[in-house]
């Protein structure tokens, strides 16, 4: 029975619900760091191939086989959208046959950090610095309504609780800024364009103009939030690149 409990859940299903998606995520993200990577990634791809073979899809074989490595490389090129060599939750949602309304929760991208902060302030209604369960529920409800999707209260509650369990890494029942950023990823971090270069006055002015959205010659609180968030993300990327050398 112990071995049976360790079998990867739900990969054979034609459609995966929100709670089943969470089961799959927890099974393969074994270290709980919020990514499927390294050996976890290899195990996931192997089990996914086996499930597809069971459903009549040809498997590429054993991990030691070069064909397996080639197929896995093709797989990552297709689904690893940010090219960081690992699978995050929004990417997994595109890989699995995820319930359509729940999948929609991972399709909401914003084009800039300023837009991200505007969304954050819109749903952090009590200005606590966190998105709590009722505020997250409002966010998801708006997403579904904008997409003209029918849903019931029970499903909305399931989506809210599932996303809290997935993204609330410190278990406090709410989403902080960095946790919300994983649910609502920004398409482009503008500061990455200036990474590793000596900044000229023209480049400085370009950055200032980018964050001074209302063009009043000042960076106000919301615009500063966006700038600081990008600085944090830039620093984190530089540090990760340095550590991988």
Automatic annotation (TrEMBL):
Gene3D superfamilies: EF-hand (1.10.238.10). InterPro entries: Calbindin_Ca-bind, EF-hand-dom_pair, EF_Hand_1_Ca_BS, EF_hand_dom. The keyword Membrane does not apply. Keywords: Calcium, Metal-binding, Repeat. GO terms for cellular component: cytosol; dendrite; nucleus; terminal bouton. Residues 16-51, 67-102, 111-146, 155-190, 199-234 form the EF-hand domain. GO terms for molecular function: calcium ion binding. GO terms for biological process: regulation of long-term synaptic potentiation; regulation of presynaptic cytosolic calcium ion concentration. Belongs to the calbindin family. This is EF-hand domain-containing protein. It comes from Astatotilapia calliptera (Eastern happy).
């Amino acid at each position: 029975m112990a071995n049976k409990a360790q079998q990867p859940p739900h990969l054979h299903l034609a459609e995966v619900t929100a709670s089943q998606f969470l089961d799959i995520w927890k099974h393969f993200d074994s270290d709980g760091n919020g990514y499927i990577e390294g050996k976890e990634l290899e195990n996931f791809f192997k089990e996914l191939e086996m499930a597809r073979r069971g459903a009549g899809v040809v498997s590429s074989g054993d991990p030691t086989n070069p064909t397996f490595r080639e197929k896995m490389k093709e797989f990552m090129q297709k689904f690893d959208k940010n090219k960081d060599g690992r699978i995050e939750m929004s990417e997994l949602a595109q890989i699995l046959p995820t319930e359509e309304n729940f999948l929609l929760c991972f399709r909401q991208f914003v084009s800039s950090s300023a837009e991200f902060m505007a969304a954050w302030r819109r749903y952090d209604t009590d200005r606590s610095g966190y998105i709590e369960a009722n505020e997250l529920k409002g966010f998801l409800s708006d997403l579904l309504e904008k997409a003209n999707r029918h849903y019931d209260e029970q499903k909305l509650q399931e989506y809210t609780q599932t996303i809290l369990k997935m993204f609330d890494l410190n278990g406090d029942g709410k989403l902080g800024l960095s946790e919300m950023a994983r649910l609502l990823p920004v398409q482009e971090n503008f500061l990455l364009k200036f990474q590793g270069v000596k900044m000229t006055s023209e480049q400085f002015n370009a950055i200032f103009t980018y964050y001074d959205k209302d063009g009043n010659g000042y960076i106000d609180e919301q615009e500063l939030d966006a700038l600081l968030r990008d600085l944090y993300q830039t620093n984190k990327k530089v540090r990760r690149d340095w550590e991988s050398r």
